[in-house]
Amino acid sequence: MTTLVAAGATDVGKVRSGNEDELLIAEPLYAVADGMGGHAAGEVASAAAMEALLVAFDGNPSGAGLVDAVRDANRAVWEQSRERSELRGMGTTMTAVALIDEGDEEVLAIAHVGDSRAYLLRDGELTQVTEDHSVPEELRRAGRLSPEEAAADPRKHVLTRVLGVDSEVEVDTAQLVPYRGDRLLLASDGLFGELSDDEIASILRRRSEPERVAQQLVTMAKDAGGADNITVVVIDVTDDDDRAAKASAKVGSQPVTAMPRPVFASPALDADPPTERIPRAVLTEDRPSPPPPPTPPTRATKEAPKKTRRPNLATVAFLAVLILILGLAATAILVAARGSYYVGVDGDDVAIFKGRPGGLLGFEPTLEERTGVRVADVLPSRLEDLRKGKQEPSMAAARSYVREIAEEGAKALMATTTSTIPPPASVAPPSAPLR
Ligand code: MG
User: Fold this and answer.
1) Torsion angle, CA of 277/136/37/369, rounded to 10 degrees?
2) What is the 8-class DSSP label of residue 28?
3) Strands (DSSP E) found in 188-314
């Protein structure tokens, strides 16, 4: 009897205002989903997908049942997206694993769509089991980008396959034979966007309980930047019915390989993807030098008495308090008027302004940065915020918001484009057990 022990952790991160990720731990089914399409819509997409997955898999807990359950999840998101205009364009990734009984043995079935990932740590070696369905990764697999170019490509958040944008979806599958000591990791891109595979592996190698490891992974990713929602599920194989001992004589320690997939040569990738409009400048994390601090009011209080002629003590005290109050008020107004940023509209473009939308007490906002993102490329649900001016506490936060709306607009466009492309001529069957 194979026994699994699992735990998960999720965190909104340091930049996003809401958590659009979902995780599921419902033995023997485990999954992560990363929603997109704007704050509320993203949360709806990942939650609806997870609910549909669980219900469908319960009805048919098998390898085929898992794939059907992911397809059900796709339809659930797609139908909600069609029924409610404010949710149009929403979608979600899905990476699910389930322990299933194949008759003669138990295996871990994996089903996957999008750019969340499944990793396997076996004998101390970390292997990425799933392949990302993103523009640069598809190009890398087609031999058109080097691994280094793909890793640095600004389109890595633009997905070529997600749940919820069409009535049908192609689902990647794989099977693993579980061995005692194996540790599986399911993760949203908020984890591996911040941490290298080596950093992830070093945490997974610790002999801690899954719950502690999951927390450590999330904490490390948050400390490293936390630019996105971070979600992980850690699954330990604690018993395998002595499968390792029985199999080792004839199998040995065959290395695990990632599941083979056909090269995805989408015609859409031959043309410039719409994401080209996301300028590199928007994606950089350069932080502007902070504005000079306002004059501390305490300085005024010290100098004030010198400006009065032959002052008596009561006058000095009164003036000091008055100047202190005026200084504080001026500082507060200055901070309120000029200490914040907002994302707004400049002609046809999305731009970042310094100050308050519409100005405050004579302090007019100033254009700080043209982002290169066009208003026409932003989801309709974001337009009202943009026209009013979406206030952010810092330049970095404003850039992050621009990046978020640019990505979701591009994702929606790319997903719509991809959904019109016929699937590859031949679809590989689920790969054979890896050992
Ligand atoms: Mg994400």
Assistant:
1) -30
2) T
3) 230-240
